[in-house]
Amino acid sequence: MKDAFGLPQSLLVLGGTSEIALATARRLIARRTRAVWLAGRPSPGLDEAAGQLRGLGAEVRTVAFDALDPAAHEDALGKVFAEGDIDMVLLAFGTLGDQAHDERDPGAAVRVAQTNYTGAVSAGLVCAGALQAQGHGSLVVLSSVAGERARRANFIYGSSKAGLDAFAQGLGDALYGTGVHVMVVRPGFVRTRMTAGLPEAPLATTPEAVAAAVELGLRRRAETVWVPGALRMVMSALRHLPRGVFRRLPV
Q1: Long-range contacts of 237-246 (CB under 8 A, 24+ apart)
Q2: Is 157 among the catalytic positions?
Q3: Which domain of life, per UniProt (predicted)?
Q4: Rounded to an integer, what distance in angstroms lies between the CA atom of residue 180 and that of residue 134?
Q5: Which residues, 6+ apart, have CB-to-CB distance to 97 below 8 Å?
Q6: What pLDDT sits at residue 52?
Q7: Whole-number Å distance between alpha carbons of 192 and 40
Q8: How far apart are CA 94 and CA 67, in angstroms?
C-alpha cells in the first residue's frame, strides 16, 4: 500500500532500462519503495539496472516484456500482479525513431507507432484492469510535449505520443472513482541516450528532474504533470498558433 504521502511501496516499471524510469525508481526507493519489478526485453542492460536498484536496498525482480508483442502482455504482466499488489505502474517505454529515415521507410514509422501507442494501449489496459481489481494504485504514463502539436521535425514520434496522451487521459476518466489514479507526465527535451546527438531544445531537462516531478505529482495526486512546469504555458501558446504561422517556426 502507499504511504501517507501517496508514495508507493511496490513499483512495476514497463520499460525497465529507461533512464527516466530508473531515476524515478531510485528516487522512490530513497523514500519508501521496497519492491520493484523491471519489465523489459531480457538483456545485460536490464540485469544491470536491477542490480543497481538492489544496491539501494530494494527487492528487485525482472520480467520479460516486449511492447511489440501485445499478445503476450496479459500473461507476462499478470504474473507480476499474481505475486501481490502493485502500488504504482510506470509506463516508460518508447522509441524516438529517426524522422528522416522513417518518412522513407513506412515499416520503420509503423514500428514507432506500434511501440509508443499500440503497445502502450495494450499494456496500459492490462495494468489498469489489474489495478482496478486490487482496488488501488497509480498508473503513471510518460507522454511528451511532442504530442501537444505535431512538428515537421518529428511528426511521426509526436503523433504517436499524441495518441498515447489522449488514451491515458481517457483511461484516467474511465477509472475515476475506482481507487485507481492515472497521471500523465509531459516532459520536454530530456537529456538521455535517446536524445544524444540531437540539438538541445529550450527548457531541456534531466531524468532526475522528471523523477522529482513524478514524486511531487504523486504526493499531490495530480492528473497531468509538465516538466519543467514552464512548458505548460509555452505549449499552450504554440498549440493555438495559426497553422500557417506555426509551419514557419524553426521547430
Answers
A1: 238/148, 238/149, 239/148, 239/149, 246/149
A2: yes
A3: Bacteria
A4: 9
A5: 108, 109, 111, 112, 156, 157
A6: 97
A7: 18
A8: 9
Q: Which of 117, 157, 167, 189 is catalytic?
A: 157
Burial 218-246, CB ≥16 within 10 A → b, else e: beeebebbbbeeebeebbeebeeeeeeeb
Which amino acid, 28?
Answer: L
Percent pLDDT > 90 in the chain is: 77
Q: Are 132 and 181 in contact (CB under 8 A)?
A: no
Q: Which residue's entry shows cell 540485469? A: 47
Encode pLDDT of 65-104 as tens digits.
999 999 999 999 999 999 999 999 999 999 999 999 999 9
User: Which residues lie across from 205 on neighbouring strands?
Assistant: 190
Cα(100)–Cα(182) distance, rounded to whole angstroms?
A: 34
Q: Which residues of 148-173 are buried (b: 16+ CB within 10 A; e: fewer)?
A: bbbbeebbbbbbbbbbbbebbbebbe
Cell 503476450 found at: 72
pLDDT 10s digits, 126-143: 999 999 999 999 999 999
Cα separation of the two ends of the chain: 43
| Positions of E strands within the chain | 10-14, 35-40, 59-64, 88-91, 137-142, 180-187, 224-227
Q: How far apart are CA 79 and CA 75, in angstroms?
A: 6
